[in-house]
Amino acid sequence: MGKKKSRKSTKLSQIYMLLLRITNFETNDKHMKIKLFIILSFLISACSGLKNLEQEKPVLSIEKLRCMGDCPVFTLDVYKNGFILYDGKMFVSLSGKYSGKINKTELEELQNKFLENGFFDFENSYKAPVMDLQTTFIFFSYKGKEKKIRDYSNPPEGLKELEDLLSGLIDTVKWKALKN
């Protein structure tokens, strides 16, 4: 984690140094200088936005772990601003790290569905004395209340519906690939 932050700090420092060079750049074309300054300012703010997002906790999340077969393995986190981070690892139609976004109405519809299905009333864990089933972790945070459920076997239909709803975002959101 420390290496990741220092790498980002280094990238931001490099962008800042480039910005300083541009502002000291000798040219007669002031419009070019202004355009470059705006572009680099935008890049700096975009980098700091991702940094802040990594420190924020998602409001909805699903993580599907490995099984002995070809179960899809991925994580999907939805944040309060509608921003989504997805990491497709194995046996998925979309492999790699991506970002996407849903609008405020779509986020509210998801949250309302979790409330309607009684997410906070479900058990904390659903398990069975069998091996090789896929484990799914699903998380919901709403107005200061949060819960994470471990689903290994036989979840109630309402919980399964919520898992499918979050997993369905993989096929409906417009994704943008992230660099590692």
Structure explained in plain terms:
With 180 residues, the chain is α+β, with helices and mostly antiparallel strands. The protein folds into two domains: 2-54; 60-177, Mago nashi protein. The protein has four helices and eight strands. A hairpin with a 2-residue loop joins strand 6 (136-142) and strand 7. It is elongated, with a radius of gyration of 21 Å. Mean pLDDT is 84; it is low at 1-5.
Name the descriptors.
2 domains, 180 residues, 4 helices, alpha+beta, eight-stranded mixed sheet, Mago nashi protein
Radius of gyration equals: 21 Å
User: Beta-strand percentage?
Assistant: 15-25%
Q: How confident is the prediction overall: mean pLDDT?
A: 84
Low-confidence stretches: 1-5
**Structural class category:** alpha+beta
CATH architecture of the largest domain: 2-Layer Sandwich
User: First CA to last CA: what distance?
Assistant: 14 Å
The DSSP helix count reads 4
Note the run of SSEs as H and E: HHEEEEHEEEHE
